[in-house]
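In this section we turn from sequence analysis to structure. A common task in structural bioinformatics is to predict how a protein folds when a small molecule is present, because the ligand can shape the pocket around it. The inputs are simple: the amino acid sequence and a SMILES string for the ligand, here zinc ion. Study the lines below before reading on.
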Amino acid sequence: MSKTETMKAVVYQEPFEVTIEDRPLPKLTHPDEAIIKVTTAAICGSDLHMYQGRTAAEGGLCFGHENMGTIVEVGQGVSLVKKGDRVVMPFNVADGRCQNCEEGYTAFCTGVNPGFAGGAYGYVAMGPYEGGQAQYVKVPFADFNCLTLPAGTANEADFILLADIFPTGWHGVVISGFQSGESIAVFGAGPVGLMAAYSATLRGASAVYVVDSVPERLAAAEKIGCIPINFTKGDAVEAIIKKNGGMVDRSVDAVGYQASGDEKKEMPSIVLENCIKVTRPTGGIGVPGLYVPSDPGAPDENSGKGMLLISFGKLFEKGLTIGTGQCNVKKYNRYLRDMIISGKAKPSFVVSHNISIDEAPTAYGKFDRREDGYTKVLIHPNGPIE
Ligand SMILES: NC(=O)c1ccc[n+]([C@@H]2O[C@H](COP(=O)([O-])OP(=O)(O)OC[C@H]3O[C@@H](n4cnc5c(N)ncnc54)[C@H](O)[C@@H]3O)[C@@H](O)[C@H]2O)c1
Ligand SMILES: [Zn+2]
């Protein structure tokens, strides 16, 4: 470990402001923990909800739930991973021993965040776990939460995506009930939407429609063989039904509650509504996009309480299924890692920028404004990857 007692960390101050602060180095406080020297930490669309002041996050929170690096220290209870191992952690903090973990629902672990089902690093309401947009991060229940990777630096930009967006995109497709050969519409071509579209392609979709308004993101979807639909150039549902010759089998909401409606005004239920309209009777909807039980910046009183107006009657009439929630990353990360190692998957096409930790405040602003093609930003807090 470095000789200095402090490290650099990306810290949320107030809406639209993060700064680089010196923070104390994390120390082991339990035998099951490990300390990781972070080689890469990614910025996520989920961080933007906090960055924009659209959550209860308070100043002083160190961001970063998508983390990988090298183990520098382990507690006495850690036996499966060791100092020197290259590892990536699911964004979920899970204990591996509660009922939900036992059943594979690690996003809903009841043992890591008292009174709540689910924990994460550097995220509001997700427990006391410091984020990894810092030079070092502490990992609880390290044997359970660390996934080992081949030594070296190969595929760094692919492996970091195992912390969240590759499994999350895959999960979005799984919870829509998708089967090989079916058609699917993905709303949102941010990193999660692009990973959902890529997953559907890997899993043998007959057609993948991707809806957004950001030209670079639609172009990225087209490049992996999907059909781009710009929702500002006409009704997206009508365009998909026309191109597909009817409704699609499945749809994925990879946008969440901060969805843009007409003239960029927010309409929190617009994407759910579009999914209900575009999915064929008895089809399914997967919702990895985030919805919250309270939103301090909501456009109306009901959505401020997380109560959204959707056509539930239509959903029922069509017999649609709907799957929601945080991704249980651990359910998929081992298999997706192996697809990367074997060369079957290369999700890093979504990465737009590699930066030093000092550049993070600027990158947050540009990613938030979707400027200059900022789609997926990788921070290298201990210097560039060779
Ligand atoms: N379930 C999980 O475990 C999980 C994990 C990671 C992220 N998320 C959530 O997934 C969502 C997407 O994450 P991201 O990193 O891709 O975020 P992002 O903000 O980069 O992407 C969202 C995209 O949606 C587009 N969009 C906005 N309104 C739209 C509309 N009406 N129709 C179609 N597209 C529209 C935006 O232009 C943007 O490109 C966020 O809500 C994030 O919090 C969930
Ligand atoms: Zn994330």
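DSSP finds 13 helices and 17 strands in the chain. As an exercise, try to locate the residues that line the zinc ion site and compare them with your own expectations.
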